[in-house]
Amino acid sequence: MQNNKTTSLAVLALIVMALIWSSNWVVMKSVLQYMGALDFTALRCALGALLLLAMLPLTGRSLKPPPWRVILWVGLLQTVGMSGLSQLALIEEGAGKTAVLVYTMPFWVILLAALFLNEKPRPVQYVATAIAAFGFLLVIQPWQWQGTLLGSFLAVASGAFWAAASVVAKRAFQHQEIDLLSLVAWQMAVGAVVLSVLAVATHETPIIWSPYALLALAYNAVLATALAWALWLFILRTLPAGVAGLSTLIIPIMSVLWAWWLLSEKPDGAEAAGIGLMSLALALIGVPEKWWAAVRRFLRLKT
């Protein structure tokens, strides 16, 4: 019963996280007219880390960090690698396209989870992955690519770093008791330090402290960074890594729709078909295993 309740909470966390992150791609793209990519990423992560570290004693937790090896790896891969590279990719690419490329992450997760977590995908996951991969091709349309090679590489690399961080965190959860909030806070603090050094070293354009820039920073620090990353690690701890990764496909679907609505980045017919296939893949992995077992039993009886 408790397991079903925890799984339901993970699904709810996924919905909330998807709403926050899918809309945030438009915010992250728009804020680039006010400050540099690394300046913004360093600020959002630093503020998010300070908020989470302040939450530790307020919630009765110790400020003592989890094992430093886990903190360093997750901080470098997730906060620096994923967040930093995705923001840099937005300089070259549109918000919708960047989101789709970053969310090649589930395919990396399935591969890495099989290699390092011994998670053998279920047959339905193979089918869902193949459908989703074809959907990605229709959205990206490499045969008529209009983006930049650099932006595309940064976005895909961001997804790969995120997948690696997810596998490191999942492996840590399997082998030791780690407080979720503490891990999110300390890995983000480590990542924020590295990002701040990079931002200072590359800073060229003055920051324009407009009302929009301040609101974007607040939204990112509180919701998209502190809350959403905590939700993601909770989802990752609760669900198998491969399932958690594939479930995030809802985010690029919603991101494309947000970009269409707010930035006029209208998807064409192929992109719409791709979104439909990715939605079908999500539906497949969302079907409970006991339902698939019932289908298999029915087919055996028929034969």
Low-confidence stretches: none
Q: What is the domain tally? A: 1
The total of beta strands comes to: 0
Q: SSE string, helix = H, strand = E? A: HHHHHHHHHHHHH
Count helical runs.
13
Per DSSP, what share of the residues sits in E-state strands of 2 or more residues?
under 5%
What does the average pLDDT come to? Answer: 84
Distance between the termini: 35 Å
Q: Tell me the helix content.
A: over 70%
Biggest pleated-sheet summary: none
Shape: globular
SSE class: mainly alpha
Structure description:
- The protein is mainly alpha-helical and 303 residues long.
- It has one domain.
- 81% of the residues lie in helices and 0% in strands.
- It is built from 13 helices and no strands.
- The chain has helices spanning 2-30, 37-58, 68-92, 95-102, 105-116, 123-140, 149-175, 180-202, 211-238, 241-247, 250-263, 269-286, 289-302.
- α1 (2-30) packs antiparallel against α9.
- It is globular.
- The mean pLDDT is 84.
Concise synopsis of the structure shown:
The protein is 81% helix and 0% strand.
Task: Based on the model shown, name its key terms.
303 residues, mainly alpha, globular
